[in-house]
């Protein structure tokens, strides 16, 4: 596989993945922090009850994500911010694999396309079962 050297020894793929991972983690942290501040402001404490609205629910991750995006989430913005932070953190490696598949397909490297498609399938099955 040939990679384009950017002077620092990193390929374009490594650079793109680095940015993707940093952006995903920082975005997740910001959403979590905003959610925690709003939660404390709303409830005056960090105690989480056993109320069903406080927990992720659904048949699997994709179903939960669909319900959340279609507005099926209770109107509790602190919990929504924290939930979005967790979702972004969970989807960051998933998007990383998609970027890798596209990069290797663009480079016409069939071996790595097959490997990353396999990893993508395993991640998709894993998220689909939980």
Task: Tell me briefly what this model is.
The protein has 4 helices and no strands.
How would you describe this protein?
- The chain is mostly helical.
- It has one domain (12-46, 57-129).
- Helices cover 70% and strands 0% of the residues.
- It has four helices and no strands.
- The chain has helices at residues 12-43, 61-69, 77-106, 110-129.
Give the helix/strand layout:
Blueprint: H1 12-43, H2 61-69, H3 77-106, H4 110-129
Helical content stands at: over 70%
Number of helices: 4
Oligomer description = single chain
* Rg value: 18 Å
Q: What's the story with the biggest beta sheet?
A: none
Shape: elongated
Spatial gap, N to C terminus: 35 Å
Total number of beta strands: 0
| Computed structural class | mainly alpha
